[in-house]
Design a protein that fits this description.
Elements (H helix, E strand, L loop, with lengths): L6 E5 L4 E5 L12 E3 L2 H22 L13
Antiparallel strand pairs: 1-2, 2-3
Length: about 70
């Protein structure tokens, strides 16, 4: 499992959970995937993260760093 963030939001219009990956937002059109259930959306999000990381590594592109939640 990756350390990248995922934001899941329900869309009444699409009747799906939409997935946004904040660390990828400047390089990938968001939302980047979806699912009919939370579990499906999370699994799809993890697959998308792996897909982009592999592609960027293969192409020699810079890979965004995962964000870390800082609690004061």
């Amino acid at each position: 499992m990756s350390r990248y963030s995922m934001i899941l939001q329900w869309s009444d219009e699409d009747e799906l959970f939409l997935v946004t990956i904040p660390e990828f937002s400047d390089r990938v059109v968001m939302p980047c995937t979806h699912g009919k259930t939370r579990e499906e959306a999370i699994n799809n999000g993890e697959e998308v993260i792996e897909m982009y990381l592999e592609a960027w590594e293969t192409e020699g592109e810079t890979i965004p760093e995962p964000s870390t939640l800082l609690v004061a």
